[in-house]
Every structure is written in structure tokens, then in C-alpha cells.
TrEMBL record:
Residues 42-61, 159-183 are annotated as: Disordered. FAD binds at residues 230, 243-247, 283-290, 380-382. InterPro entries: Cry_DASH, Crypto/Photolyase_FAD-like_sf, Crypto/Photolyase_N_sf, Cryptochr/Photolyase_FAD-bd, Cryptochrome/DNA_photolyase_1, DNA_photolyase_N, Rossmann-like_a/b/a_fold. This is Cryptochrome DASH. Signal peptide: none annotated. It comes from Natranaeroarchaeum aerophilus.
């Protein structure tokens, strides 16, 4: 064929991008296209925006890096703003394309947009979709996605035994783009985002793009050599290297899980192969699990009762929700994590589990409000990973255990010396560990001797947390 348009979505890379590779081999000229669709950042039905400034900036940088990579190969990225179902057909018409190649993703809005684009294309244009964002290919699953187990462990075991991971597809050496106005990449301001805050306490600067993602992998595996201890450090909370931090690049598709897999295997051959190296692949299978679960259950993931139809009385207390979101609950471990999220767009996995459990279990607030807030704030937001993990924590998703996190014992276990809380809540700096996690235990004399007066220097706890966890323990087990 003569000309193909490659509509880039959450696959902002040239390595292991089958959509691009297939278009390049099928067509003489290729028009790579990225569309900034305003619907991706507008307000969600729950109040928060769908995309905040940290992710907005990361995505813009990723598009910029993709443009450079394509230019290095002799091509050009065409950038437009507008509704995808208007823009893609108009570019197709402008270059008289024979086909559109695009990544396909499992969640409701993504599929709707995909169908809208397909339906708006002239019947003569071939619409080709590729499934490119998981470790295991959809067609390689031992059990078809609509019949897979809803519990992770049996699914993982079956996949580990019965499916292999395909080799990454090499980046095309040359991309030949016809004459077309490339368009400018809009500024953050033009896209409607404020410049995100810069905070030196951020675990990483998180620069968007395939180049920065590959640099991160190079650092974490090969230079810092931290994969050999991943399993024992992954529950950390401070610093760049306690975990891989691959998530923002995976979510935007700057890194492909199969490419990471190949590097892990090479590391296992050249350095060490142990439980820790295996565990990174284990976590990538958690990621896959949620992607395939979304294919299986679709829109049911977004209902209050979730995929298992669990009825629970959720509270809709806006004031309490705002305290949680702002990191003003008066429970330091929760507040520190929420402030890290708000300042940097990132929060550790340990932190995410605890703040989610605090919202849904301790406060009993609608889990979808929490998921929508994360959707806005997270730099690594991914629809299936986010809504899947929230549903799981709320007891309406992929697990029938109704567990909760006792955030006080979690704080003492994972932040034993209160370094994390002291980092994100400098107003508690003077407090020794026991009070840094439970400031309400201070008497008035201690408050004045440490110069931390509750209700003045730091919030009073919004609930009696100690009593609440005793109550939860008694009712749940
Ligand atoms: C309430 C809640 C919401 C979450 N929302 C998201 C989200 O929107 N996007 C997202 O990528 N992750 C999400 N996670 C999963 C996990 O917290 C992050 O993937 C992880 O903290 C990212 O840091 P990392 O890359 O250093 O992780 P690592 O520990 O280095 O893990 C490597 C990779 O494995 C995958 N992974 C690890 N844990 C999980 C998990 N529980 N579920 C799915 N994939 C996982 C991620 O792609 C991650 O980059 C959420 C977890 C919870 C509890």
C-alpha cells in the first residue's frame, strides 16, 4: 500500500511497537500522528479532572521525545489537537491514506474512542489494531480472556506454565513520511495545565519519553544494580531505587513490558538470577492481570458494587474526602503519602494501599472518589491498574478477602524511624518516632515542649483512629 497513518495512543515509543513496525513494512510512506484530545484532561463525573499537571507534562515530554526518535529515522510526527474521531479521519483524507494502524486498549472510553475513529473513516480505509501494551499477548493466554480466573494466583500460575513472552519487535530503521504540516506540540499552558510543582523530595524527576525510560532502566538494572534485591526493597518509600519506578513510562507506553522482560532475562544471564529478579516479572504479571480483567469485565469495574456485585453502604462526605485528598486527616502516615502524591504525582505501592484502605475502610467513603482522585494526580495513572487496585482494596474487585490495612502498625513497620513522615510533614520534625506516627498521644506539656500543637501546627485526627482499627478488627475477623 502507498500510505498508512499510525495513530499513536498510549504507545509513545519506537522500540517494540508492532503498530509502527507493521505500518512501516506494509506501506511505502507512513504518517505517524499524535492527537491531544481535550477529553483526556476534562473534569470526571466525580469532580477531579481526568489528568493533572504532572501527567500532562510527562505526556507532552513523551510526545516530544517520540518526535525526535521518528526524525532520527527520517520521519516526522504529526501533532494535532482536537477530538480523535475528527482529527484522525481528516489527516487520513489529507494524505489520502489507505490504512490506519493503532494500538488497542481494553477500557471503556478507550474502546469508545477507537470505535468512533473507525466509524468516522471512509469504508475504503483499512483500520488495523494491534495489542501491544502487555507482557503476554492476548492471543497467547492459555485460557481466553473472557474465561480467565478472577483471582490472581491461579491465573499467574497458569500463565507462567502455559504462555511464553514474545520477543520485542525492533524499531524500524527508516520511517518515510510524506510532505505534511507537522504541527507544533502545544505548550503545557495551551493544553490547559499549570506548571506542576517541583519538589526536591520527589523520588525521581520523572522525565517523559522513551529515551528517559530506557535511561531509567539502564540505571536501575545495570548501573545501580538494584534488581538483585528488588523483592526485599520494593516496599520502601524513600529514594529512587527501592523499586523500579518504571510505571509512568509503562503507562504512557514509552517502555514496553516485553522490552523490560528481555532486559531482565539478560540481567539474569549476565549478573544474577534469583527470587528478586523473578519478582519484577511477577509484578508485571499483576499489571497484565488487571489489563485482561478489564477486557473480561469492561464497564462493571466502574460500578460501586464492582465486578462481584458487593453491596456496601458508601459515605459521600465531601468535607472528609477533601481532608483525605489534601493530606489533612491528622494521621501522619496518610497525610505524608497524600502530600507526596500531590507534590510529585507519585506514591509508593505501600503508600497507595494504605491511603486507599484508610479512605474505604476507616472512613467508609465511596472508593470511586478515591480512584478518580488518583486518576487526576498519578503520573503513572493507568485505567486498569488504578481502578483494578482500588476495587480490590474496596473489596469489590478481584479478591474475596475483605482485608484492611491498620495504617498505624503499617507506619511503624514500614517507616520505623519516621523518616518518611518527617520528610513529608516537616512540621512534625521535632517529634520522636512514637509521636510522629501517633501525635494525638501527646499530652499538653509534650505538645508545648516539642512545639507541635495539634489543631495549630498540625491537624487534629479526623477520627479516633486507634478505636476505629480495634472496631474494624472485631467486625472483620
Ligand atoms: C490504590 C492503588 C492504585 C494504583 N494505581 C496504579 C496506576 O494507576 N498505575 C500503575 O501503574 N500502578 C498503579 N498501582 C500499582 C502500583 O502501586 C504501582 O504500579 C507501583 O507503585 C509503581 O511503582 P514502580 O514502577 O516503582 O513499581 P515496581 O514495584 O518496580 O513494579 C514494577 C511494575 O510492576 C507493575 N505493578 C507493580 N505492582 C502493581 C500492581 N499492584 N498492580 C498493577 N501493576 C503493578 C507496574 O507496572 C510497575 O511499574 C496502584 C496500586 C494501588 C494500591
Amino acid at each position: 500500500m502507498e500510505t498508512a497513518v499510525v495513530w499513536f495512543r498510549d504507545d509513545l515509543r519506537v522500540e517494540d511497537n508492532l503498530t509502527l513496525a507493521d505500518a512501516v513494512s506494509a506501506a511505502e510512506t507512513v504518517v505517524p500522528l499524535y492527537v491531544f484530545d481535550p477529553r483526556r484532561r476534562r473534569e470526571s463525573q466525580y469532580g477531579p479532572d481526568k489528568m493533572g499537571s504532572h501527567r500532562g507534562q510527562f505526556r507532552r515530554e513523551s510526545v516530544d521525545d517520540l518526535r525526535e526518535s521518528l526524525q532520527d529515522r527520517g520521519g516526522e510526527l504529526v501533532v494535532r489537537e482536537g477530538l480523535v474521531e475528527d482529527v484522525v479521519p481528516s489527516v487520513v483524507e489529507g494524505v489520502d491514506a489507505d490504512a490506519v494502524f493503532a494500538q488497542t486498549k481494553p477500557a471503556t472510553e478507550e474502546v469508545e474512542r477507537e470505535h468512533a475513529v473507525r466509524d468516522a473513516l471512509p469504508g475504503t480505509v483499512d483500520f488495523q489494531r494491534r495489542f501491544t501494551h502487555t507482557l503476554h499477548h492476548l492471543n497467547d493466554l492459555p485460557t481466553p480472556y473472557d474465561r480467565i480466573d478472577d483471582t490472581f494466583t491461579p491465573w499467574r500460575k497458569e500463565v507462567e506454565q502455559g504462555a511464553s513472552v514474545r520477543d520485542p519487535v525492533p524499531a524500524p530503521e527508516r520511517v518515510s513520511t510524506p510532505q505534511v504540516d507537522p504541527g507544533v506540540i502545544p505548550s503545557l499552558d495551551d493544553l490547559g495545565f499549570d506548571t506542576p510543582p517541583h519538589d526536591d523530595r520527589s523520588v525521581l524527576p520523572f522525565e517523559g519519553g522513551e529515551t528517559a525510560g530506557q535511561d531509567r532502566l539502564q540505571h536501575y538494572l545495570w548501573e545501580a544494580d538494584r534488581l538483585r534485591e528488588y523483592k526485599s526493597t520494593r516496599n520502601g518509600m524513600l529514594g529512587p531505587d527501592y523499586s523500579s519506578k518504571f510505571s509512568p513510562w509503562l503507562a504512557a507506553g514509552c517502555l514496553s513490558p516485553r522490552w523490560i522482560h528481555r532486559e531482565v532475562k539478560r540481567y539474569e544471564d549476565e549478573r544474577v538470577s534469583n527470587e528478586d529478579t523473578y519478582w519484577l516479572l511477577f509484578e508485571l504479571r499483576w499489571r497484565d492481570f488487571f489489563q485482561f480483567q478489564f477486557l473480561k469485565h469492561g464497564g462493571n469495574f466502574f460500578t460501586p458494587t464492582g465486578i462481584r456485585n458487593v453491596e456496601r453502604e458508601w459515605k459521600h462526605d465531601r468535607a472528609a474526602f477533601r481532608q483525605w485528598a489534601a493530606g489533612e486527616t491528622g494521621v501522619p502516615f496518610i497525610d505524608a503519602n497524600m502530600r507526596e502524591l500531590n507534590e510529585t504525582g507519585y506514591m509508593s505501592n505501600r503508600g497507595r494501599q494504605n491511603v486507599a484502605s484508610f479512605l474505604v475502610d476507616a472512613l467508609g467513603i465511596d472508593w470511586r472518589w478515591g480512584a478518580a482522585y488518583f486518576e487526576e494526580r498519578l503520573i503513572d495513572y493507568d485505567v486498569a491498574s488504578n481502578w483494578g487496585n482500588w476495587a480490590y482494596q474496596a473489596g469489590v474487585g478481584n479478591d474475596s478477602r475483605d482485608g484492611f490495612f491498620n495504617v498505624l502498625s503499617q507506619a511503624e513497620r514500614y517507616d520505623g524511624d519516621a523518616e518518611y513522615v518527617h520528610t513529608w510533614l516537616p512540621e512534625l520534625q521535632a517529634l520522636p518516632t512514637e509521636y510522629a506516627h501517633r501525635p494525638w498521644r501527646m499530652d499538653a506539656d509534650e505538645e508545648s515542649s516539642y512545639d507541635v500543637v495539634l489543631g495549630v501546627d498540625y491537624s487534629e485526627p479526623m477520627i479516633d483512629v486507634e478505636a476505629r482499627f480495634v472496631e474494624l478488627q472485631e467486625t472483620r475477623y
